[in-house]
Description:
The complex is a heterodimer of chains A (321) and B (260). The N and C termini of chain A lie far apart (56 Å). Chain A has helices at residues 19-31, 47-52, 69-85, 96-109, 219-228, 237-241, 272-278, 307-319, and strands at 5-10, 12-13, 16-17, 34-39, 57-60, 89-93, 113-123, 126-133, 138-144, 150-154, 170-173, 186-192, 205-209, 232-235, 262-266, 283-288, 301-304. In chain A, α3 (69-85) packs across α4 and α5 runs parallel beside α8 (307-319). Chain A has a nine-stranded mixed β-sheet with strand order 9-8-7-10-6-1-4-5-11. In chain A, strands 14-13-15-16-17 form a five-stranded parallel β-sheet. In chain A, strands 2-3 form a two-stranded antiparallel ribbon. With 321 residues, chain A is an alpha/beta fold. In chain A, 26% of the residues lie in helices and 28% in strands. Chain A has two domains: 5-183, HUPs (Rossmann fold), CATH 3.40.50.620; 205-319, Rossmann fold, CATH 3.40.50.1220. With 260 residues, chain B is of the alpha/beta class. Chain B has a single domain (3-220), classed as HUPs (Rossmann fold), CATH 3.40.50.620. In chain B, α2 (69-77) links the parallel β4 (57-62) and β5 (81-85).
Amino acid sequence: MAINTIWVYAEAADGKVAPLTLELLTKARSLAGNVEAVLAGDASDVAATLGAHGASKVRATGDLGEALPGPAAASAIAEAVKGGDAPDLILFGQTYEARDVVARLSVKLDRTVLSNAVDLAVEGDGVQVVNAIFGGNTLVTTTFTGPAPHLVLVRPKSFAAEESGGGAAEVVALPVPDLGATGSAKVLARHVEESTGPKLDEADIVVSGGRGLGEAEKYQMIEDLAKLLKAAPGASRAIVDAGWVPYSYQVGQTGKVVKPNVYIAAGISGATQHMVGMKGSKNIIAINKDKEAPIFSVSDLGIVGDVHKVLPKLIETLKSR
Amino acid sequence: MNIVVCVKQIPDPAAPGALDPTTHTLKRDGKLILDESDSYGVEMGLQLATATGGGEVSLVSMAPNNEVSGLRTALAMGAAKATLVSDPALAGSDALSTAKVLAAAIRRQGVPDLVLAATESTDGYTGTVPEMLAELLGLPSVTFAKKVEIADGTVKVQRQTELGYDEVECPLPAVVSVTAGVVEPRYPSFKGIMAAKNKPVDQVTVADLGLDAGEVGQAGAGQQIVQVAAAEARQAGTIIEDDGEGHLRIVEFLEGLKVI
């Protein structure tokens, strides 16, 4: 193996490690002999899970209080790298938090960031990163030309998470240097606006609605159908931008990436921005008035029809079962 | 309060994209338009300038061939002036080079109270440039803002998170990136469109910004595309016209998958 150490930027909330972190640890294990986690926060609750997925160590800043993680984690990682502990590669999930961290780190280390990766490989001494562009129709492989450590942002659901059977990761302190003005943003309060039922990016079935629903009130049909199927409700960017549902419902390039067993797209035409987020679903059902809609090109079952007619009948039929 | 909004001019997303056969970078030689994502930042800038008692909203942009059509759209919405960095040396720039160029262009104008940007461009969508810009300017930042207010020298933001949102407060000057849908972008009025034609656009090169051509563009990118291949296409499935019984086909399909 041509690369020795990979760091994975770990994310956790309420003592639970994010699924994306576990996906990255699993992939990292297949690429390098030593995998370590880096965490902006306290590691005591998560060292066991991180270790069980292959991290030998977790370098943790400790509780950051009300500070945003971006400047603190980037400064701490940069200091560790400059202090001689540099890994060959640092993997980040394409999340809100990790994008802040990797962006500041990119400037501090003067290293390029390859983003939106859907696959990774080690080729000789180099790291190759695969991107899916044009809605996933074209795969582009890029390699780094500068020195290590290389920085990569990886899209969720690119790899399956598997346990390695390892013991708890050794917790090592990751000191945060003085941040000056850059660290002056403070979190005053945190709000959770998850819908009840399964989480969008973990659900076995996802039912999404789009502009074809016509008006905000009609989104209730999506909620009703989702409930009947024990599915998570989702949405296209168009109706999130229009304010019908919260941003946390959004499936797509700027929203969540989902790969459920079944994805039902109702009144969604299938803009590139949306397809990027759901194309990996095992089975896709689409309902749309326009038979030329791009969503039909990826559908296993396409119903050319009016969602206002098809959905109520579908809901009634499922209710009566 | 003075505000700078970073805007990108991109190939029309409705048109099929193409890669340059030699460099494998996205072709940008056709007509460019204002990235719709950036219209939210422009609108937010205009609203915040008004809410804080006036002040100027100016634009910075980096684009090939001295392209100004997207900038004219933002000027027509009400921005006062623009700096456009255009230089053949910038072709193939990565996110870090782009941020270095935008930071230098902002410094040339004078660092304002607030720098606004979209969370990510529609064509490149790395979502890293605003935070890089903050680091280069030595400023605090709040990214992925879905609500922005200014009071007493601080900016209050509702920041998107994986689970909901955080309320974040940050002293000015600062960099804030805004999500789509944060405000309703205005349509340029006829008067605005006419006025935009005479608004100043400062056209500068890499050398004007005091940057070395070797640290930007393809030369400074630190990355190289080694392969472009077609992805495995999804098999097209069954498409049927709804004859009033379409819902039953869906039920059968779900039964076949044993999920109901």
